[in-house]
């Protein structure tokens, strides 16, 4: 099982994805001393069915919700890239922003969405953010001549030890979140614009999913990830 790191980073496609995907693990680690930074890729400005809502208003709402959720978990900082919802592309600029964050904050572990699924649909932003994060972590953040302009800011290459991908079909790493399941639920409920139903519905859904994963490793509640270990 992966050891709790000193520093971790979570690359998030949309506001609320981190809390749903790895909020239990993040909350558990932060309580034990891990320093965590979020990198939020999009502003989530399309995530509504309200015909009277505007993208500008929704983006502002969701940024506040993400800040509140991060504060609930104890996250050190949220980096807002503010790409429009649905607009992530595998570009040099986007990759460089992830590389910059990795080199600045020097995480031991990076979390992202698993971009590779075979049996069910995955939102395009999840695929893009996951793939770009994979590439940013290895080899771009590691190699000195990639984004060499970062050195002018005093940022040196950084080698990430582990990549943990949520939303995977093939989890091989499981974290017991029994002691942090309530914190995960509390953080997820901060995304008021996205949470349908009442508090009980949210809690029941989160617990049911975490219980299903937990059964695989014989604990009450767990989160599952596909782990990639890099040579240090």
Give a concise summary:
With 232 residues, the protein is α/β, with parallel strands linked by helices. It is built from six helices and seven strands. The chain has one domain: Rossmann fold (3-Layer(aba) Sandwich), CATH 3.40.50.
Give keywords.
alpha/beta; 7-stranded mixed beta sheet; 232 residues; 7 strands; 19% strand
Question: How would you sum up this structure, described in words?
Answer:
The protein is globular, with a radius of gyration of 17 Å. The chain has helices at about 15-30, 55-75, 90-105, 125-140, 180-190, 200-215, and strands at about 5-10, 35-40, 75-85, 110-115, 160-165, 175, 220-230. Helix 4 links the parallel strand 4 and strand 5 (about 160-165). Strands 3-2-1-4-5-7-6 form a 7-stranded mixed β-sheet, sandwiched between helices. Helices cover about 40% and strands about 20% of the residues. The chain has one domain (about 5-230): Rossmann fold. It is an alpha/beta fold.
Number of domains: 1
Secondary-structure arrangement, i.e. CATH architecture: 3-Layer(aba) Sandwich
Which strand order does the major sheet show?
3-2-1-4-5-7-6
Which structural class best describes the helix and strand composition? alpha/beta
CATH superfamily: LmbE-like
CATH level-1 class? Alpha Beta
Instruction: Calculate Rg over CA atoms.
Output: 17 Å
Please give the alpha-carbon distance between the first and last residues. 18 Å
Number of strands: 7
The CATH topology corresponds to Rossmann fold
Question: What's the number of helices?
Answer: 6
Tell me about the biggest sheet? 7 strands, mixed
**Dominant shape:** globular
Mean model confidence by pLDDT:
95
Order of helices and strands: EHEHEHEHEEHHE
Helix content: 25-40%
């Amino acid at each position: 099982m992966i050891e709790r790191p000193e520093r971790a980073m979570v690359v998030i496609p949309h506001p609320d994805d981190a809390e749903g995907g790895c909020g239990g693990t993040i909350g558990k680690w932060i309580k034990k001393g891990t320093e965590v930074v979020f990198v939020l890729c999009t502003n989530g400005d399309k995530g509504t069915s309200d015909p009277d809502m505007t993208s500008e208003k929704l983006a502002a709402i969701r940024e506040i919700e993400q800040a509140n959720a991060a504060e609930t978990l104890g996250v050190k900082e949220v980096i807002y890239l503010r790409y429009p919802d649905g607009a992530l592309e595998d570009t040099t600029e986007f990759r460089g922003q992830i590389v910059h964050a990795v080199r600045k904050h020097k995480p031991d572990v990076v979390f992202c969405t698993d971009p590779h699924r075979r049996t069910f649909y995955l939102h395009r932003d999840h695929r893009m953010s996951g793939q770009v994060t994979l590439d940013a972590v290895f080899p771009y953040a590691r190699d000195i001549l990639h984004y060499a302009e970062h050195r002018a800011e005093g940022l040196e290459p950084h080698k990430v030890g582990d990549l943990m991908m949520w939303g995977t079909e093939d989890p091989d790493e499981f974290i017991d979140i029994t002691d942090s399941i309530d914190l995960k639920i509390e953080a997820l409920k901060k995304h008021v614009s996205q949470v349908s139903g009442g508090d009980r519905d949210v809690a029941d859904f989160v617990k049911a999913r975490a219980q299903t994963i937990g059964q695989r490793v014989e604990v009450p509640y767990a989160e599952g990830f596909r782990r990639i270990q890099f040579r240090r």
